[in-house]
Amino acid sequence: GRDVTEDLADHIAFGNEGFHVAKLGDVREENGEYQALVYWLGLDEDEASWEPVRSLYEDIPIVFRRWVHQHEDQEEVKKMAAELEKTLGHSL
C-alpha cells in the first residue's frame, strides 16, 4: 500500500495545484507525445485524465520514476522512458 513517504511526495509535488495523484495507469502516444493516465485522489476513476509524461516527470519525479521502474517490462512504458530520457539528456 501507499506509505506516508509516498503521500508526502505527492503532496509536495501537487500541494499548490489542488489535485494530488492517486496513481498512474496506462501510457499512450498521442500526436508524437507520450501521455500517462492519471488517477486523482478524491476523484472518481472515470475522471482520470491523460497528462504529458514530461509534465509528470517535472511535477512528481519520485512517483513518476517509481511507476516507470515498476512497469518497465511493458513495451509502451519502455519506449516512453527511452524517448523521455533522450529528450531530457539523462536517465530516469
TrEMBL record:
Gene3D superfamilies: 2.40.50.40. InterPro entries: Chromo-like_dom_sf (IPR016197), Chromo/chromo_shadow_dom (IPR000953). Signal peptide: none annotated. Residues 19-79 form the Chromo domain. This is Chromo domain-containing protein. It comes from Aphanomyces astaci (Crayfish plague agent). The lineage of its organism: Eukaryota, Sar, Stramenopiles, Oomycota, Saprolegniomycetes.
